[in-house]
């Protein structure tokens, strides 16, 4: 709010938990535009604008998809900054090289689009909570780095 920027979210494995945390803050309506819970690949592609080729090449849980989710969400929600997450909350869903607890957080702003990789070690609920905390922590750091 202090920077005068608006925020949008595209959540997948966190299932709306980041949005829940944002809207728990009084006054969040001053800067928070809204969110899309893009749990299925179909919603990632048809609503958010992730390229099907990107999902086919890298998988839904990848830095590339997290970044495209953040870019697409920023455009769709007309937000200055968009955070996105994609991951494997557990207990199932792991594949070779992509264990339960693997999350990618995407962040898109006019200055660029970035992603972070995280490996959480909890159960489903803990992994979702850890992803939300990581995303919000990164957002805070990013905002503080802006001049």
Overview of the structural elements:
The chain is of the alpha/beta class and 147 residues long. It has a single domain, classed as Maf protein, CATH 3.90.950.20. The chain has five helices and five strands, in the order E-H-E-H-H-H-E-E-E-H. A five-stranded mixed beta sheet has the order 2-1-3-4-5. The chain is globular, with a radius of gyration of 14 Å. The protein starts with 6 loop residues before the first strand and ends with a helix. The model has no long low-confidence stretch (mean pLDDT 97).
Name given to the CATH homologous superfamily: CinA-like
* Percent of sequence in beta strands: 15-25%
**What CATH architecture would you give?**
Alpha-Beta Complex
| Spans where pLDDT lies below 50 across 5 or more residues | none
What percent of the residues sit in helical stretches (DSSP H or I)? 25-40%
Radius of gyration: 14 Å
Tell me the overall shape.
globular
Instruction: Work out the helix count.
Output: 5
Number of strands: 5
Class derived from helix and strand content: alpha/beta
What top-tier CATH class fits best? Alpha Beta
Distance between the termini: 14 Å
Please outline the major beta sheet.
5 strands, mixed
Overall structural domain count: 1
Counting copies of identical and different chains, the oligomeric state is single chain
CATH topology tier name: Maf protein
List the strand order in the largest sheet: 2-1-3-4-5
Strand and helix order: EHEHHHEEEH
């Amino acid at each position: 709010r202090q920077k005068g920027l608006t925020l949008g979210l595209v959540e997948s494995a966190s299932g709306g938990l980041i949005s829940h945390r944002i809207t728990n803050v009084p006054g969040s309506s001053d800067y928070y535009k809204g969110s899309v819970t893009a749990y299925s690949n179909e919603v990632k592609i048809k609503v958010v604008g992730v390229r099907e080729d990107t999902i086919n090449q890298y998988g839904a849980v990848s830095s590339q998809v997290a970044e495209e989710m953040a870019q697409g969400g920023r455009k769709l929600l007309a937000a200055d900054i968009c955070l996105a997450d994609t991951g494997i909350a557990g207990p199932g869903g792991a594949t070779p090289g992509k264990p339960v607890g693997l999350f990618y957080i995407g962040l898109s702003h006019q200055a660029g689009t970035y992603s972070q990789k995280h490996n959480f070690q909890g159960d489903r609920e803990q992994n979702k909570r850890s992803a939300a905390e990581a995303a919000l922590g990164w957002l805070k750091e990013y905002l503080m780095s802006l001049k």
